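User: Here's a chain of 231 residues. Predict its fold as C-alpha coordinates.
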Amino acid sequence: MTPPPFESLPSPLTLPPTGSAAKGGKHRLRNLVLTGLLILAPLYLTGYVLWLLFHFMDGIFAPLIERAIGLHVPGFGVVLTLTSILALGWVSSFLAGRRAIAAVEGLIRRIPIARSVYGATKGIFEAISRDQAEAFKRVVLIEYPRKGVYSLGFVTGSAAWPGVAQATEDLTFVFVPTTPNPTSGFLVVTPSAEVKDCPLSIEEGVRLIISGGLLQPAIKADAPAGEPAAP
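Assistant: Prediction complete.
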Protein backbone atom coordinates (compact mmCIF):
# COMPACT_ATOMS: atom_id res chain seq x y z
CA MET A 1 0.00 0.00 0.00
CA THR A 2 1.46 3.31 -1.10
CA PRO A 3 1.62 5.90 1.74
CA PRO A 4 0.10 9.30 1.00
CA PRO A 5 2.43 12.10 0.02
CA PHE A 6 3.95 14.14 2.81
CA GLU A 7 2.08 17.32 1.80
CA SER A 8 -1.34 15.65 2.37
CA LEU A 9 -0.62 14.53 5.94
CA PRO A 10 -2.39 16.59 8.66
CA SER A 11 -0.20 18.94 10.59
CA PRO A 12 0.45 17.54 14.11
CA LEU A 13 0.99 21.01 15.57
CA THR A 14 -0.97 24.23 15.20
CA LEU A 15 1.16 27.23 15.97
CA PRO A 16 -0.44 30.03 17.99
CA PRO A 17 -1.17 33.28 16.18
CA THR A 18 1.65 35.74 16.12
CA GLY A 19 2.03 39.45 15.53
CA SER A 20 -1.03 41.66 15.39
CA ALA A 21 -3.48 38.73 15.76
CA ALA A 22 -1.98 37.69 19.11
CA LYS A 23 -1.88 41.27 20.37
CA GLY A 24 -5.50 41.81 19.34
CA GLY A 25 -6.57 38.67 21.19
CA LYS A 26 -4.74 39.72 24.37
CA HIS A 27 -6.21 43.21 24.17
CA ARG A 28 -9.73 41.85 23.77
CA LEU A 29 -9.21 39.39 26.65
CA ARG A 30 -7.96 42.17 28.90
CA ASN A 31 -10.96 44.35 28.03
CA LEU A 32 -13.34 41.48 28.78
CA VAL A 33 -11.70 40.87 32.18
CA LEU A 34 -11.77 44.57 33.11
CA THR A 35 -15.37 44.95 31.95
CA GLY A 36 -16.37 41.95 34.07
CA LEU A 37 -14.60 43.41 37.08
CA LEU A 38 -16.32 46.77 36.61
CA ILE A 39 -19.67 44.96 36.65
CA LEU A 40 -18.85 42.61 39.53
CA ALA A 41 -17.09 45.05 41.87
CA PRO A 42 -20.05 47.44 42.41
CA LEU A 43 -22.41 44.50 42.93
CA TYR A 44 -20.05 42.96 45.48
CA LEU A 45 -19.52 46.22 47.37
CA THR A 46 -23.26 46.95 47.41
CA GLY A 47 -24.07 43.50 48.73
CA TYR A 48 -21.30 43.73 51.33
CA VAL A 49 -22.51 47.11 52.64
CA LEU A 50 -26.11 45.86 52.81
CA TRP A 51 -24.97 42.71 54.62
CA LEU A 52 -23.09 44.80 57.20
CA LEU A 53 -26.12 47.02 57.69
CA PHE A 54 -28.51 44.08 58.10
CA HIS A 55 -26.10 42.32 60.47
CA PHE A 56 -25.70 45.49 62.53
CA MET A 57 -29.46 46.02 62.86
CA ASP A 58 -30.05 42.36 63.61
CA GLY A 59 -27.39 42.39 66.33
CA ILE A 60 -29.09 45.32 68.07
CA PHE A 61 -32.77 44.38 67.90
CA ALA A 62 -32.75 40.58 67.66
CA PRO A 63 -31.80 40.14 71.37
CA LEU A 64 -34.56 42.57 72.40
CA ILE A 65 -37.18 40.67 70.38
CA GLU A 66 -35.91 37.38 71.76
CA ARG A 67 -36.30 38.64 75.34
CA ALA A 68 -39.76 40.01 74.62
CA ILE A 69 -41.28 36.94 72.91
CA GLY A 70 -38.80 34.28 73.99
CA LEU A 71 -38.06 33.30 70.41
CA HIS A 72 -35.11 34.06 68.16
CA VAL A 73 -36.24 35.40 64.79
CA PRO A 74 -33.42 34.96 62.23
CA GLY A 75 -33.12 37.68 59.61
CA PHE A 76 -35.08 40.20 61.65
CA GLY A 77 -32.44 42.81 60.84
CA VAL A 78 -33.31 42.59 57.14
CA VAL A 79 -36.98 43.34 57.80
CA LEU A 80 -36.17 46.09 60.28
CA THR A 81 -33.64 47.75 57.99
CA LEU A 82 -36.04 47.83 55.05
CA THR A 83 -38.80 49.12 57.30
CA SER A 84 -36.54 51.86 58.70
CA ILE A 85 -35.49 52.97 55.20
CA LEU A 86 -39.09 53.16 54.02
CA ALA A 87 -40.18 54.93 57.21
CA LEU A 88 -37.44 57.58 56.91
CA GLY A 89 -38.30 58.14 53.26
CA TRP A 90 -41.97 58.53 54.15
CA VAL A 91 -41.25 60.92 57.04
CA SER A 92 -38.97 63.07 54.87
CA SER A 93 -41.81 63.62 52.39
CA PHE A 94 -43.56 65.87 54.94
CA LEU A 95 -42.46 69.34 56.01
CA ALA A 96 -42.50 68.45 59.71
CA GLY A 97 -40.46 65.32 59.01
CA ARG A 98 -37.86 67.27 57.05
CA ARG A 99 -37.55 69.77 59.89
CA ALA A 100 -37.09 66.96 62.41
CA ILE A 101 -34.40 65.34 60.27
CA ALA A 102 -32.68 68.71 59.83
CA ALA A 103 -32.70 69.19 63.60
CA VAL A 104 -31.07 65.79 64.13
CA GLU A 105 -28.48 66.60 61.47
CA GLY A 106 -27.80 69.89 63.24
CA LEU A 107 -27.04 68.04 66.47
CA ILE A 108 -24.73 65.61 64.65
CA ARG A 109 -22.84 68.47 62.98
CA ARG A 110 -22.01 69.93 66.39
CA ILE A 111 -19.96 66.84 67.29
CA PRO A 112 -16.41 67.31 65.87
CA ILE A 113 -15.65 63.78 64.61
CA ALA A 114 -19.24 62.79 63.87
CA ARG A 115 -19.88 65.83 61.67
CA SER A 116 -16.88 65.01 59.46
CA VAL A 117 -17.88 61.38 58.99
CA TYR A 118 -21.58 62.19 58.55
CA GLY A 119 -20.95 65.07 56.15
CA ALA A 120 -18.59 63.07 53.93
CA THR A 121 -20.87 60.03 53.88
CA LYS A 122 -23.96 62.07 53.09
CA GLY A 123 -22.15 63.96 50.35
CA ILE A 124 -21.06 60.73 48.65
CA PHE A 125 -24.55 59.23 48.78
CA GLU A 126 -26.15 62.43 47.50
CA ALA A 127 -23.70 62.56 44.59
CA ILE A 128 -24.35 58.90 43.73
CA SER A 129 -28.13 59.14 44.08
CA ARG A 130 -28.48 62.18 41.84
CA ASP A 131 -29.50 61.69 38.25
CA GLN A 132 -26.39 61.31 36.13
CA ALA A 133 -27.59 63.78 33.50
CA GLU A 134 -28.14 66.35 36.25
CA ALA A 135 -24.89 65.75 38.13
CA PHE A 136 -22.51 65.56 35.14
CA LYS A 137 -23.43 67.58 32.07
CA ARG A 138 -20.61 66.64 29.66
CA VAL A 139 -17.05 65.31 29.48
CA VAL A 140 -14.29 67.86 28.94
CA LEU A 141 -10.54 68.28 28.94
CA ILE A 142 -8.81 71.06 30.88
CA GLU A 143 -5.16 71.96 31.26
CA TYR A 144 -4.61 70.80 34.82
CA PRO A 145 -2.49 70.70 36.98
CA ARG A 146 -0.29 72.75 34.62
CA LYS A 147 -0.19 74.06 31.09
CA GLY A 148 0.40 71.36 28.50
CA VAL A 149 -1.01 68.56 30.68
CA TYR A 150 -4.68 67.69 30.22
CA SER A 151 -7.04 66.15 32.76
CA LEU A 152 -10.37 64.48 32.04
CA GLY A 153 -13.28 65.99 33.93
CA PHE A 154 -17.03 66.49 34.05
CA VAL A 155 -18.81 69.81 33.84
CA THR A 156 -21.06 70.30 36.87
CA GLY A 157 -22.09 73.92 36.47
CA SER A 158 -21.14 77.45 35.54
CA ALA A 159 -20.90 80.86 37.19
CA ALA A 160 -20.07 84.49 36.56
CA TRP A 161 -17.91 86.36 39.06
CA PRO A 162 -17.17 89.67 37.31
CA GLY A 163 -16.13 91.42 40.50
CA VAL A 164 -13.21 89.08 41.17
CA ALA A 165 -11.14 89.39 37.99
CA GLN A 166 -11.57 89.83 34.25
CA ALA A 167 -11.03 86.11 33.60
CA THR A 168 -13.80 85.15 36.04
CA GLU A 169 -16.64 86.73 34.10
CA ASP A 170 -17.49 83.37 32.50
CA LEU A 171 -16.48 80.34 34.55
CA THR A 172 -17.09 76.60 34.31
CA PHE A 173 -17.04 74.21 37.25
CA VAL A 174 -15.20 71.01 36.30
CA PHE A 175 -15.03 68.00 38.60
CA VAL A 176 -11.80 66.06 38.03
CA PRO A 177 -12.18 62.57 39.57
CA THR A 178 -9.41 60.40 40.90
CA THR A 179 -8.53 56.89 39.68
CA PRO A 180 -9.86 54.31 40.43
CA ASN A 181 -12.35 55.92 42.86
CA PRO A 182 -14.37 58.53 40.92
CA THR A 183 -16.33 59.65 44.01
CA SER A 184 -13.32 61.70 45.15
CA GLY A 185 -11.49 64.32 43.17
CA PHE A 186 -10.93 68.04 42.69
CA LEU A 187 -13.23 70.89 41.78
CA VAL A 188 -11.46 73.08 39.22
CA VAL A 189 -12.96 76.50 38.46
CA THR A 190 -11.65 77.50 35.05
CA PRO A 191 -12.56 80.09 32.40
CA SER A 192 -15.06 78.64 29.95
CA ALA A 193 -12.84 79.52 26.99
CA GLU A 194 -10.18 77.11 28.26
CA VAL A 195 -12.56 74.13 28.52
CA LYS A 196 -12.32 71.70 25.61
CA ASP A 197 -15.27 69.40 24.92
CA CYS A 198 -14.43 65.70 24.65
CA PRO A 199 -16.41 63.37 22.31
CA LEU A 200 -17.27 60.90 25.08
CA SER A 201 -20.51 60.06 26.84
CA ILE A 202 -20.70 60.29 30.61
CA GLU A 203 -20.60 56.48 30.92
CA GLU A 204 -17.51 56.24 28.71
CA GLY A 205 -15.76 58.97 30.67
CA VAL A 206 -16.43 57.25 34.02
CA ARG A 207 -15.32 53.89 32.60
CA LEU A 208 -12.11 55.45 31.28
CA ILE A 209 -11.28 56.99 34.66
CA ILE A 210 -12.07 53.87 36.73
CA SER A 211 -9.93 51.67 34.47
CA GLY A 212 -7.01 54.08 34.59
CA GLY A 213 -7.07 54.52 30.82
CA LEU A 214 -7.10 50.80 29.99
CA LEU A 215 -10.66 50.83 28.59
CA GLN A 216 -10.33 53.40 25.84
CA PRO A 217 -13.37 53.93 23.63
CA ALA A 218 -12.90 54.42 19.91
CA ILE A 219 -13.23 58.12 19.10
CA LYS A 220 -13.93 59.43 15.63
CA ALA A 221 -12.26 62.65 14.60
CA ASP A 222 -15.60 64.26 13.71
CA ALA A 223 -17.58 62.82 16.65
CA PRO A 224 -19.68 65.48 18.44
CA ALA A 225 -18.92 66.11 22.10
CA GLY A 226 -21.04 64.20 24.57
CA GLU A 227 -22.09 61.54 22.06
CA PRO A 228 -21.21 57.86 22.66
CA ALA A 229 -18.19 56.67 20.75
CA ALA A 230 -18.63 54.22 17.91
CA PRO A 231 -18.18 50.54 18.85
